[in-house]
Fold these 4 entries.
Entry 1:
Amino acid sequence: MKMVPVLLGWYLYELTGSKLALGILGLSEVLPAIILSLPAGVKVDSSPKRTLILRCLILYIIIMIVLYLVTSTEFIPTTHSYSKEYLIYFLVGITGIVRAYMSPAFSAIIAQLVPPKSLVQAASVNSMSWLIAAIIGPTIAGFMIGFLETSASFLVITAFLITSYIIFMNITEKGVSYDKGKTRTWHSMLEGVRFVRDQKALLGAMGLDMFAVLFGGAIALLPVFAKDILNVGPQEFGLLMSATYLGNFMAILYLTRYPLQNRQGYKLIYSIAGFGVCILIFAVSRFFWLSFAALLVSGLFDGVSVIIRGTIFQLLVPDHMRGRVSSVSSIFVNSSNELGQFESGVTASLFGTVPSVIFGGCMTLIITGIAWMKIPALKKLEY
């Protein structure tokens, strides 16, 4: 699914020429994802994860087929640009609904596939698998934009999703008993919120990452940087989209082999500060490879944060609450990407592309400083 933001971001910016449209694209997905996060977590904890994931994959397949129809000039002419734009927002909103269930189900199913002693390693392998897709996906999407029509690219994604569905049908999860009557109550839905609130280190790590990505994310404006500032084509745009994830992968691969031994809380704060510095370098760069390197190194720093958060989650969260806590985590961490996309689109429309990214990088550094002074539990984090 990491191919989709590349295709839609490039397509929408060519269609509308609007930076704000890129921000609205992220907002369209994140609003339903946030609204449904808590009830989705309850649903995940009271349902077979495999079945839920398979249903979500079916919905994704349907959405990709509809996106093919919407972006195809044979079905909707380019003269109906407003119709295409709003239909895309609507379809992306539906993907936000699906993501609200899919994301916590994927996080929760890991504990049902491996023994407890292998959870930390399994979490790292899962993160690396996701990142491989995040690296390869945007790169392939960039080349598809150059050599195929955007609409045809959605048919390629549909084929990938069908393959994923077939593979996932052969996965077997261990049986877990649930009290469905209890896990469907409002009280139970809030248990995930209370659990995160009481785990100060987990709450601090989630909050710090959320604000760092909210203000420091430059991904939303990459179509603008690629076309108007760096003057490169869709292939280079795809490489820029994959750079951060490549850095994530390199960091996680290294830390899986050589785990962080102590003072993980300090290292988390340092890594977020490094992320902010890289965003500032990216903002002022006028050379493609310097921009690529800045995003790559930002991914290295972010990878440290991913490992620490993932390890805390696997070690602290009991199995029967993984879906609900993962949903709370998605509000803090995953949704901050799209909220950051909206923030970037709005500030770029008001103040300009480069100033908006500089502002985001500075805010990341300020928030890191506040976390250093105001969240002692995070500095003391060690496992």
Entry 2:
Amino acid sequence: MPKTLSEVTRDAAELPTSERLKLARILLDLSETSAEPAEELQVAWDDEIARRLRELRTGTVQGVPLAEVKKRIEAGFQP
């Protein structure tokens, strides 16, 4: 007999954080009904990555150091 949603949820809550995140990604992938084939999506991502790298290399945009990004994120979670 299949598990109920409540049982699955309870089991998922007991997983380590990294495993819960993997499970969430799997569930999202299973529920996606994208009209675009995976290959077209990959091409779009490749184009986006190339555009962003080009902007960084030409100085069109300025990068932000990881330490600064972390500080900004953590500051956003402060009361």
Entry 3:
Amino acid sequence: MKLKSIPEDFVVAEISDFTPDAAGRFFVYELTKRSLATLEALSIIARKSGMRAKDLSAAGLKDKHGLTTQLFSSTKALRTDVDDDRVTLRLVGKSTDKLTAGTILGNRFEITLRHLNARDVEVLPRNIDEIKRNGVPNYYDNQRFGGIAHGQGFIAKALVRGDFEEALRLHMAVPHRKQNMTDKQNRRLAAKHWGDWDTLHKLMRNAPERALVAYLKNHPDDWAGCFERITPSLRKLFVAAYQSYLFNETLRRLIAAQGLDVIETPNKAGVLSFWRELPPDILDVWTKRELPLLGPGTRIDEHATVEAHLNATLQAEGITLEQLMLDGLKRTSFSSAKRSALVFPHDFQASPLVEDELNEGSSKLTVKFDLPRGSFATIVTRRLVLREDD
């Protein structure tokens, strides 16, 4: 199976409860973007409007590789004819406050699965039926794990352990293939000259990381202070990535403890277990079950049914709940929350299979469904083509 061969293969429309308020002081726009991450699109809009990116606030973050529509608010009125064919704007009204995630009810997806072979096609009818009846585990998927330093571990795990130098190194000195050449070169230089801040500062090309090196020239022992000079959105991403991994691992352990018929498949951060069938008694309970997103305010003893699995996840990671306080950092933190263990794609529809015009000799399928805020459509598509021999 192939996803996102072209942007039109992954169409996402935000479902919002935003109600315009003519007396509001914020301007709200509908943003349609193509092959851009939300923050990239907002940065383009801000730059072309002579504003700062922080003056624009999106309710949520949408996939880069797709055609997506969402709302964002602006402190000022914007021209809607942005000179970039990847971005379209439409004014939808005004708001008393800037938009936040609280305005999002969910997302509507239209996804084309390509390069389906005969074995994929064979399992689709059964898998579609099982998804409709049993839902899917509400895992986080690969898009959430930008806080992994590409084979060298989670940046936030180093923070939890109090190793702020290692967290900085993972951010500044580990290149990855999706970075541009400047960022890759800077990170290779950082790996080679780590600790020699004068030399590194002279050699690095201009980038946000160069400012971090400048700080280390004058404060060579202040690893925590330097880390907190990283862009806030990136620091939040690092924390969210590790917190999401802890959630996935706890959910996987919970599923394993039920004695269900499961199929396992790898993802960027570990292994995901999917059930085939949920007995009625488990389905009834799990439809209402929430698992904690671990933070310093989590009371594990209040989650008796999953307490053993939460403790097992922490033990496997070699950390304690208290370490999530991130002592030594002032502006970087874990926040406790809850997340549903199971999710049902609403209004699920599948088109007839047809020939894939982009991949000779294979088929394609288009599916449509709604998911609540924060749930990952790619978990549904994984489940659609899951086979016993995967």
Entry 4:
Amino acid sequence: MTASEPSGIRVQNVGLTLGTRKFRFDCELPGGAITAITGPSGSGKSTLLNLIAGFETPDSGKISIGGSNVTALHPSQRPVSLVFQDNNLFAHLDLATNIGLGIHPALKLTSGDRKRISEALERVGLGGYEKRMPGTLSGGERQRAAFARALVRQRPVLLLDEPFAALDPGLRQSMARLLLELHRETGNTVAIVTHDAGEVRQLADHALFIDHGEVALQAEIEVFLMRRDVPGLTEFLDL
């Protein structure tokens, strides 16, 4: 996730139709910052993340990361790592193997790669867990393992889709602190989808509010938290 220059994300007049739903996004996520993406359920938050990651292909418009046009690139060709709510660990593989998939899909790992895996596990508080199976771990431990997989990928952009939603309040706080700590160390560009106003306040440098498939507001966090003229935003911030 380390990059010599922060990789900002530009989503320029991107249009997408999924069934009967239409989305149109125009926004910028600053390089080296944590951007919170929030809004009502079904508004298009995850759709925006999927467009940036490459899991959805826009009907029109352009997506750039670090100044390079990635609109037509396969997800594997984009400089991003992802952490999802369900952590996407393979139940039949131990943690070292799960994390190794982040380095090489065919698991052609060098001794240096295996050292990176152990270091990443140590970094997220799971030192010595290489042979543990996902089913033996708590929800918080599985999510830490997902962070370790993102760490070993060493991509400049980290995308997170409600990564803490299934955790209890104490674990949410612990994982949020870990995210901030890792961000300070790497200086990477982070986009996190969240329904939690507290997470927006705690984590974000910048925020987007999405409603009805469009970006209703994008602003630095201090400005975002003061705005009360955007329908739906006041209710969200006052929860």
